[in-house]
Amino acid sequence: MTKQEAVPMNDLKRLYQRYQVEIEHEVTSTLRSGWWLNGAAGKKFAANFSKFIGVSECVLVANGTDALELALAAVTTRGREVVVAANAGGYASCACWHNDLIPHYVDIEPASQLVDIQSVLKAASVDTAAIVVTHLYGGVVDVRAIRDGLDQAGLSHIPIVEDCAQAHGARIGSDVAGSLGDISTFSFYPTKNLGAMGDGGAVLTSDTVIAGHVRQLQQYGWSSKYHVGVPYGRNSRMDEVQAAILDVLLGDVDSRNRQRRGILSQYKSVAGRRLQFLEGGDGAVAHLAVALCDDRDSFRAFMKERGIDTDIHYPVLDCDQVGWADLPMKGSENLAVSRASVSRLCSVPCYPDMTSDEIEQVCLALREWEAM
């Protein structure tokens, strides 16, 4: 067959080129200020991002995993269970273990790969310290339904932590992901829907007491400089350069999400028999274009022959990771959908800076695969 141009899973150079003038202006201004941590750029982005999400408090931290760990530390007591999905890459599980908490795994819905609400409610009990709801692949979990179910079960005290690492700007109705639970966490890893040019994360809430606890934990547990008021603190900060860059990109998150959804919609229009692209809900933001495929290895080889990158998000359930086998966990025997799905998941390129030719190249390959 004729050799075609390569279609990468992502190409961050294009993002930089699109915003180069604005980014370089803000980065240069920040560097010239001589204030590279805990300064005006961070305060500005935190205020703008909390307004975008619809909450009052935003604490900027070093990365998304730190955000999860700090959020759980702020709302739980050690030694108890946290309800989580097993299919989301291991980040919530790590946050549990680093806080001496026990992940209690629950199953997912097949069409979305998002956590199954009834499974969450069945697992919740007086032993539950928190529930982590991961808005995976840019889809949106109905957090309000979980809260209503907890209230009806007499478990209204259980905090819900939203993991929004893949869901910047996602919505359910008029509510933005990150405003639905008691506390939420974000990653600004470069490939995210809102990504830094380095690393960064954030913890958001409208509870000022929780926010105050997170601020202590992110700065060694200090109650005042060099005076530790709470245990288990650390050093976790976002630098001013990353905050300045993120503030430049924030204004276009919604428009770029629409581009992502448009690309995924084109893929869905040519697939459906051999590939089933996931359905994340009307307010989903297509962080990734993930499909279920019964012959994944052959599909990936087929796409590679046509110059198209693919990836797997994620190839191993948390409970099946060899290195974590001896760590405390519950629920791994009740994951029928998760286990049936993990060997079928495959991602194809989907990002706003793809060219129309690249999108058509992927669509042509998908059509050809479906016709086989």
UniProtKB/TrEMBL annotation:
GO terms for biological process: polysaccharide biosynthetic process. The active site is at K192. It holds the Pfam family DegT_DnrJ_EryC1. It comes from the Bacteria. Signal peptide: none annotated. The keyword Lyase does not apply. Keywords: Aminotransferase, Pyridoxal phosphate, Transferase. The keyword Transferase applies. InterPro entries: DegT/StrS_aminotransferase (IPR000653), PyrdxlP-dep_Trfase (IPR015424), PyrdxlP-dep_Trfase_major (IPR015421), PyrdxlP-dep_Trfase_small (IPR015422). Gene3D superfamilies: Aspartate Aminotransferase, domain 1, Type I PLP-dependent aspartate aminotransferase-like (Major domain). One of its GO terms (molecular function) is transaminase activity. The modification N6-(pyridoxal phosphate)lysine is found at K192. Belongs to the DegT/DnrJ/EryC1 family. This is DegT/DnrJ/EryC1/StrS family aminotransferase. It comes from Mesorhizobium ciceri.
